[in-house]
Specification:
This protein has a domain of 104 residues. The chain starts with a helix and ends in a 14-residue tail after the last strand. Helix content is 37%, strand content 6%. The chain is mainly α and 324 residues long.
Length: 324
Protein backbone atom coordinates (compact mmCIF):
# COMPACT_ATOMS: atom_id res chain seq x y z
CA UNK A 1 0.00 0.00 0.00
CA UNK A 2 2.80 2.35 0.88
CA UNK A 3 4.52 1.50 -2.41
CA UNK A 4 1.32 2.26 -4.36
CA UNK A 5 0.87 5.60 -2.61
CA UNK A 6 4.48 6.55 -3.32
CA UNK A 7 4.04 5.77 -7.01
CA UNK A 8 0.83 7.82 -7.16
CA UNK A 9 2.44 10.76 -5.41
CA UNK A 10 5.43 10.61 -7.77
CA UNK A 11 3.11 10.55 -10.78
CA UNK A 12 1.14 13.56 -9.52
CA UNK A 13 4.36 15.51 -9.08
CA UNK A 14 5.49 14.64 -12.60
CA UNK A 15 2.13 15.77 -14.02
CA UNK A 16 2.36 19.04 -12.09
CA UNK A 17 5.86 19.66 -13.43
CA UNK A 18 4.65 18.98 -16.96
CA UNK A 19 1.75 21.43 -16.56
CA UNK A 20 4.09 24.11 -15.19
CA UNK A 21 6.46 23.52 -18.08
CA UNK A 22 3.61 23.85 -20.58
CA UNK A 23 2.43 27.09 -18.98
CA UNK A 24 5.92 28.56 -19.14
CA UNK A 25 6.25 27.48 -22.77
CA UNK A 26 2.85 28.97 -23.57
CA UNK A 27 3.81 32.23 -21.89
CA UNK A 28 6.90 32.47 -24.07
CA UNK A 29 4.86 32.00 -27.23
CA UNK A 30 2.03 34.33 -26.20
CA UNK A 31 1.71 37.33 -28.53
CA UNK A 32 0.88 39.81 -25.81
CA UNK A 33 1.49 43.48 -26.53
CA UNK A 34 4.97 44.79 -25.94
CA UNK A 35 4.86 48.14 -24.18
CA UNK A 36 6.19 50.87 -26.47
CA UNK A 37 7.15 52.91 -23.41
CA UNK A 38 9.25 50.44 -21.36
CA UNK A 39 9.51 47.30 -23.55
CA UNK A 40 7.70 44.92 -21.16
CA UNK A 41 5.77 42.04 -22.77
CA UNK A 42 2.27 41.85 -21.29
CA UNK A 43 -0.48 39.22 -21.21
CA UNK A 44 -2.67 39.00 -24.32
CA UNK A 45 -5.66 41.31 -24.08
CA UNK A 46 -4.06 43.62 -21.54
CA UNK A 47 -4.96 47.27 -22.12
CA UNK A 48 -2.33 48.78 -19.84
CA UNK A 49 1.28 47.82 -19.17
CA UNK A 50 1.70 45.88 -15.92
CA UNK A 51 5.11 47.50 -15.45
CA UNK A 52 4.65 51.23 -16.16
CA UNK A 53 0.89 51.60 -16.67
CA UNK A 54 1.13 52.97 -20.22
CA UNK A 55 -1.69 52.24 -22.67
CA UNK A 56 -1.06 49.16 -24.81
CA UNK A 57 -1.89 48.11 -28.32
CA UNK A 58 -2.87 50.21 -31.28
CA UNK A 59 -5.75 52.60 -31.89
CA UNK A 60 -7.52 53.76 -35.01
CA UNK A 61 -7.39 57.19 -36.62
CA UNK A 62 -10.83 58.83 -36.59
CA UNK A 63 -10.10 60.43 -39.96
CA UNK A 64 -8.96 57.44 -42.05
CA UNK A 65 -9.26 54.41 -39.76
CA UNK A 66 -5.54 53.55 -39.91
CA UNK A 67 -3.98 52.02 -36.80
CA UNK A 68 -1.59 54.04 -34.67
CA UNK A 69 0.33 53.45 -31.46
CA UNK A 70 0.13 55.30 -28.14
CA UNK A 71 2.45 58.27 -28.12
CA UNK A 72 1.81 59.29 -31.75
CA UNK A 73 0.47 62.80 -32.26
CA UNK A 74 -0.35 62.40 -35.95
CA UNK A 75 -1.50 59.67 -38.29
CA UNK A 76 1.29 58.63 -40.64
CA UNK A 77 -1.22 57.56 -43.30
CA UNK A 78 -3.41 60.65 -43.66
CA UNK A 79 -1.49 63.26 -41.65
CA UNK A 80 -4.41 64.04 -39.33
CA UNK A 81 -3.63 65.27 -35.84
CA UNK A 82 -4.34 62.74 -33.07
CA UNK A 83 -4.19 65.35 -30.30
CA UNK A 84 -7.54 65.98 -28.59
CA UNK A 85 -8.47 68.67 -26.06
CA UNK A 86 -4.90 69.96 -26.11
CA UNK A 87 -2.71 72.38 -28.04
CA UNK A 88 -1.27 70.69 -31.10
CA UNK A 89 1.95 72.71 -30.73
CA UNK A 90 2.79 72.29 -27.02
CA UNK A 91 0.16 69.78 -25.80
CA UNK A 92 -1.08 72.14 -23.06
CA UNK A 93 -4.74 71.73 -22.11
CA UNK A 94 -7.13 74.01 -23.98
CA UNK A 95 -10.84 74.58 -23.61
CA UNK A 96 -13.30 74.08 -26.48
CA UNK A 97 -13.70 77.34 -28.36
CA UNK A 98 -10.24 78.70 -27.44
CA UNK A 99 -8.71 80.40 -30.47
CA UNK A 100 -5.22 80.54 -28.99
CA UNK A 101 -3.27 78.30 -26.65
CA UNK A 102 -2.98 79.89 -23.18
CA UNK A 103 0.48 78.33 -22.80
CA UNK A 104 2.37 78.96 -26.08
CA UNK A 105 -0.01 81.49 -27.71
CA UNK A 106 -0.20 79.64 -31.05
CA UNK A 107 -3.53 79.64 -32.91
CA UNK A 108 -5.78 76.61 -32.48
CA UNK A 109 -6.45 76.46 -36.24
CA UNK A 110 -2.75 76.28 -37.17
CA UNK A 111 -0.23 78.78 -38.56
CA UNK A 112 -0.12 80.00 -42.14
CA UNK A 113 3.39 80.18 -43.59
CA UNK A 114 4.35 83.68 -44.72
CA UNK A 115 6.39 82.30 -47.64
CA UNK A 116 4.28 79.56 -49.21
CA UNK A 117 0.89 79.99 -47.44
CA UNK A 118 0.87 76.40 -46.14
CA UNK A 119 -1.21 75.99 -42.96
CA UNK A 120 0.14 73.55 -40.39
CA UNK A 121 0.54 72.72 -36.69
CA UNK A 122 4.34 72.60 -36.84
CA UNK A 123 7.00 75.08 -35.71
CA UNK A 124 8.67 74.80 -39.12
CA UNK A 125 6.67 74.87 -42.35
CA UNK A 126 6.39 71.30 -43.71
CA UNK A 127 6.58 72.65 -47.26
CA UNK A 128 9.50 75.13 -47.22
CA UNK A 129 10.96 74.67 -43.69
CA UNK A 130 10.40 78.34 -42.88
CA UNK A 131 10.42 78.95 -39.07
CA UNK A 132 6.87 79.84 -37.97
CA UNK A 133 6.99 80.21 -34.18
CA UNK A 134 9.11 81.81 -31.49
CA UNK A 135 10.09 78.32 -30.36
CA UNK A 136 11.49 77.64 -33.85
CA UNK A 137 13.62 80.81 -33.77
CA UNK A 138 14.90 79.94 -30.28
CA UNK A 139 15.83 76.45 -31.50
CA UNK A 140 17.86 77.94 -34.36
CA UNK A 141 19.78 80.17 -31.93
CA UNK A 142 20.28 77.28 -29.54
CA UNK A 143 21.77 75.13 -32.31
CA UNK A 144 24.53 77.67 -32.93
CA UNK A 145 26.15 76.56 -29.66
CA UNK A 146 25.54 72.84 -30.14
CA UNK A 147 28.95 71.04 -30.48
CA UNK A 148 27.53 68.32 -32.76
CA UNK A 149 25.92 70.86 -35.07
CA UNK A 150 29.07 73.01 -35.12
CA UNK A 151 31.12 69.97 -36.15
CA UNK A 152 28.73 69.23 -39.02
CA UNK A 153 28.69 72.86 -40.20
CA UNK A 154 32.51 72.94 -40.19
CA UNK A 155 32.56 69.91 -42.47
CA UNK A 156 30.06 71.58 -44.80
CA UNK A 157 32.33 74.63 -45.01
CA UNK A 158 35.33 72.39 -45.72
CA UNK A 159 33.38 70.71 -48.51
CA UNK A 160 32.39 74.03 -50.11
CA UNK A 161 35.98 75.35 -49.90
CA UNK A 162 37.16 72.58 -52.22
CA UNK A 163 35.36 74.19 -55.15
CA UNK A 164 37.52 77.30 -54.67
CA UNK A 165 40.82 75.41 -54.98
CA UNK A 166 42.74 75.84 -58.23
CA UNK A 167 42.34 72.80 -60.41
CA UNK A 168 44.63 71.84 -63.27
CA UNK A 169 42.75 69.87 -65.86
CA UNK A 170 44.81 66.96 -67.14
CA UNK A 171 45.58 67.33 -70.88
CA UNK A 172 44.40 64.78 -73.37
CA UNK A 173 46.70 62.11 -74.82
CA UNK A 174 46.90 64.05 -78.11
CA UNK A 175 48.02 67.20 -76.28
CA UNK A 176 50.71 65.28 -74.41
CA UNK A 177 52.00 63.70 -77.65
CA UNK A 178 52.10 67.09 -79.40
CA UNK A 179 54.08 68.67 -76.55
CA UNK A 180 56.56 65.81 -76.55
CA UNK A 181 56.98 66.05 -80.35
CA UNK A 182 57.76 69.79 -80.08
CA UNK A 183 60.45 69.08 -77.51
CA UNK A 184 62.06 66.42 -79.73
CA UNK A 185 62.02 68.71 -82.81
CA UNK A 186 63.69 71.51 -80.82
CA UNK A 187 66.45 69.16 -79.66
CA UNK A 188 67.08 67.95 -83.24
CA UNK A 189 67.32 71.53 -84.53
CA UNK A 190 69.92 72.41 -81.90
CA UNK A 191 71.95 69.29 -82.75
CA UNK A 192 71.90 70.09 -86.50
CA UNK A 193 73.02 73.69 -85.93
CA UNK A 194 75.88 72.61 -83.64
CA UNK A 195 77.08 70.05 -86.19
CA UNK A 196 77.09 72.68 -88.97
CA UNK A 197 79.21 75.09 -86.90
CA UNK A 198 81.70 72.35 -86.07
CA UNK A 199 82.09 71.31 -89.74
CA UNK A 200 82.76 74.93 -90.78
CA UNK A 201 85.49 75.31 -88.17
CA UNK A 202 87.13 72.03 -89.20
CA UNK A 203 87.15 73.01 -92.90
CA UNK A 204 88.74 76.39 -92.20
CA UNK A 205 91.50 74.80 -90.18
CA UNK A 206 92.28 72.06 -92.72
CA UNK A 207 92.34 74.33 -95.78
CA UNK A 208 94.33 77.16 -94.22
CA UNK A 209 91.71 79.57 -95.35
CA UNK A 210 90.88 81.77 -92.48
CA UNK A 211 87.32 81.65 -91.50
CA UNK A 212 85.53 84.70 -92.71
CA UNK A 213 84.32 86.93 -90.00
CA UNK A 214 80.68 87.41 -90.15
CA UNK A 215 78.47 89.55 -88.17
CA UNK A 216 76.84 87.53 -85.52
CA UNK A 217 73.21 87.23 -86.29
CA UNK A 218 70.91 88.69 -83.80
CA UNK A 219 69.75 85.99 -81.48
CA UNK A 220 66.31 84.80 -82.28
CA UNK A 221 63.78 85.43 -79.62
CA UNK A 222 63.51 82.40 -77.37
CA UNK A 223 60.75 80.13 -78.35
CA UNK A 224 58.20 79.52 -75.66
CA UNK A 225 58.48 76.16 -74.01
CA UNK A 226 55.68 73.73 -74.63
CA UNK A 227 52.78 74.33 -72.30
CA UNK A 228 53.08 71.15 -70.27
CA UNK A 229 51.33 71.45 -66.88
CA UNK A 230 53.22 70.39 -63.78
CA UNK A 231 50.74 67.96 -62.28
CA UNK A 232 52.68 67.27 -59.10
CA UNK A 233 52.28 70.84 -57.88
CA UNK A 234 48.55 71.09 -58.47
CA UNK A 235 45.70 68.79 -57.59
CA UNK A 236 43.70 67.39 -60.44
CA UNK A 237 39.96 67.12 -60.40
CA UNK A 238 39.94 63.41 -59.57
CA UNK A 239 41.84 64.06 -56.34
CA UNK A 240 39.43 66.81 -55.31
CA UNK A 241 36.38 64.67 -56.03
CA UNK A 242 37.87 61.90 -53.89
CA UNK A 243 38.37 64.44 -51.11
CA UNK A 244 34.74 65.53 -51.41
CA UNK A 245 33.51 61.96 -51.04
CA UNK A 246 35.63 61.52 -47.94
CA UNK A 247 34.15 64.65 -46.35
CA UNK A 248 30.63 63.43 -47.18
CA UNK A 249 31.38 60.22 -45.28
CA UNK A 250 32.52 62.24 -42.28
CA UNK A 251 29.38 64.40 -42.47
CA UNK A 252 27.15 61.32 -42.53
CA UNK A 253 29.08 59.81 -39.60
CA UNK A 254 28.42 62.95 -37.53
CA UNK A 255 24.76 62.90 -38.52
CA UNK A 256 24.49 59.25 -37.51
CA UNK A 257 25.44 60.28 -33.97
CA UNK A 258 22.18 62.26 -33.82
CA UNK A 259 20.28 58.94 -33.82
CA UNK A 260 21.19 58.57 -30.15
CA UNK A 261 19.23 61.70 -29.21
CA UNK A 262 15.72 61.27 -27.82
CA UNK A 263 13.18 63.96 -26.92
CA UNK A 264 10.41 64.63 -24.44
CA UNK A 265 7.68 64.94 -27.08
CA UNK A 266 7.20 64.82 -30.89
CA UNK A 267 7.23 68.60 -31.42
CA UNK A 268 10.51 69.03 -29.53
CA UNK A 269 12.13 66.50 -31.86
CA UNK A 270 10.70 68.18 -34.96
CA UNK A 271 11.99 71.58 -33.84
CA UNK A 272 15.49 70.24 -33.28
CA UNK A 273 15.86 68.34 -36.55
CA UNK A 274 14.17 70.96 -38.73
CA UNK A 275 16.27 73.73 -37.17
CA UNK A 276 19.34 71.75 -38.22
CA UNK A 277 18.23 70.50 -41.61
CA UNK A 278 21.25 70.61 -43.96
CA UNK A 279 21.09 72.14 -47.42
CA UNK A 280 20.91 69.65 -50.23
CA UNK A 281 19.05 66.46 -51.07
CA UNK A 282 18.49 65.10 -47.56
CA UNK A 283 15.71 62.90 -46.18
CA UNK A 284 14.90 61.91 -42.60
CA UNK A 285 15.33 58.35 -41.31
CA UNK A 286 13.32 57.78 -38.11
CA UNK A 287 14.05 55.36 -35.26
CA UNK A 288 10.33 54.75 -34.67
CA UNK A 289 9.77 52.28 -37.51
CA UNK A 290 12.96 52.83 -39.52
CA UNK A 291 11.05 54.66 -42.24
CA UNK A 292 12.31 57.29 -44.66
CA UNK A 293 10.35 60.56 -44.45
CA UNK A 294 10.81 63.89 -46.25
CA UNK A 295 11.21 65.41 -42.76
CA UNK A 296 10.23 64.70 -39.11
CA UNK A 297 6.84 66.38 -39.68
CA UNK A 298 5.73 63.19 -41.43
CA UNK A 299 6.75 60.84 -38.60
CA UNK A 300 4.30 59.76 -35.91
CA UNK A 301 6.94 59.36 -33.17
CA UNK A 302 9.95 61.55 -33.98
CA UNK A 303 10.69 61.81 -30.23
CA UNK A 304 12.41 58.42 -30.56
CA UNK A 305 15.05 60.17 -32.66
CA UNK A 306 16.45 59.79 -36.15
CA UNK A 307 18.95 61.26 -38.57
CA UNK A 308 19.23 63.19 -41.83
CA UNK A 309 20.46 61.02 -44.71
CA UNK A 310 21.82 62.33 -48.01
CA UNK A 311 20.38 60.80 -51.18
CA UNK A 312 21.91 60.97 -54.64
CA UNK A 313 18.73 60.63 -56.68
CA UNK A 314 15.39 62.35 -56.82
CA UNK A 315 12.61 60.89 -54.68
CA UNK A 316 8.96 61.31 -55.67
CA UNK A 317 7.06 61.67 -52.39
CA UNK A 318 3.37 60.97 -52.07
CA UNK A 319 1.64 63.39 -49.73
CA UNK A 320 -0.89 62.48 -47.05
CA UNK A 321 -3.65 63.57 -49.40
CA UNK A 322 -2.41 61.22 -52.11
CA UNK A 323 -0.89 63.93 -54.31
CA UNK A 324 2.61 63.45 -55.72
Amino acid sequence: MDSYQNRSLHRERELEKEKTKQKEQQKKTDTGHVCSNCGTRNEPGAKFCEECGAALGSFNCKNCGAEYQPGQDLCEKCGASLVENACKFCYAQVEPGDKFCPECGNPADGIKCGKCATVSFFDFCPNCNNPLTEAALLEIEKSKNDPQIQAINSLFEEFEAIDEEEVEEEPSIQEKMQARLQEEMEKEREKTQAKFEQMRRDFSKASGIPEQRREKPKPAPPKPKPNVPVFKEKKNRAELEAKKKEILKRIQAEMDKLKEKTFSDPQAARRYFNANKPDGNYVWNCNFNDSIHPDPNNCGKPQKGGRWVVVYEDIEWVGHDGSA
